[in-house]
């Protein structure tokens, strides 16, 4: 057993911790409170003068499939041989020795979702994993955690320039709808015993059966509305990834009950879809009651700037509580792993960070990061 005493900070769920003791057993938070009896022989850490938070969560990254510092050889995130590749899986391309994982741990990020890129209309399956480890299968906590899809400029550019569909936004939507219809037919044929196994349709079937959501790259407002139209047509669960123009239709998003991954807002306006990019999107989503998370989209913005992004969100209208939830408890809900991580509660994984000061002060640094009770 371990004990962290004199803990002050955020619990991830919107409440502050003030001079409490946290007991950890078997890698889980065991008890949290004041005047706890610490069993004899317990390894004890004094957090006096430090600031405590749950481990941070980035819901949308390409860690390990778009490796840093090695160029083309490490770019395993876009299988651009076809416009729809639902059969591929991010777990099969992750290199746990990517330097980005070390950067994540050093900056307090303990959990990430790793997904294919946005070159394809359907990019493949994604997974959620801890940022410490050398064997991906032992790092994973949810696999699959969703199926990647993309709208807008990226699939049009990657495939349209090669002279194949999609060339237009109509073509993007048509490919996605066609694959979903073909999957409906496949499911019926499998039940009737008239179809052989097909990996592409098997993984799409998880979306239609609501085992995982379709997580769709959509920046522009019209693309977001197209995604919601397809959600209604096929009665599937979706999340909106990036949601750059979400401020233009926040109440409409709220009506559809979707979760949003917002970011990376620290980028320049490098393409047309980002022309209305700004920190004002997050307060608009919050006001409308749209649940959101903040992402770096690593390596678009380096993973060590997840906390920096939250600081910028506070500077531009979010409360510290809202911003912290967006990279802890709300992020965990976005990924469907809220029973394991995201807040300091008995029974959850003991993933936490000790900071030199309030993490919303850019001068503060993550001094120690723990995953399942072990310093990493």
TrEMBL record:
Gene3D superfamilies: Metal-dependent hydrolases. Residues 53-374 form the Amidohydrolase-related domain. Pfam families: Amidohydro_1. GO terms for molecular function: hydrolase activity, acting on carbon-nitrogen (but not peptide) bonds. SUPFAM superfamilies: Composite domain of metallo-dependent hydrolases, Metallo-dependent hydrolases. InterPro entries: Amidohydro-rel (IPR006680), Metal-dep_hydrolase_composite (IPR011059), Metal_Hydrolase (IPR032466), Metallo-dep_Hydrolase (IPR051781). It comes from the Bacteria. This is Imidazolonepropionase. It comes from Sediminibacillus halophilus.
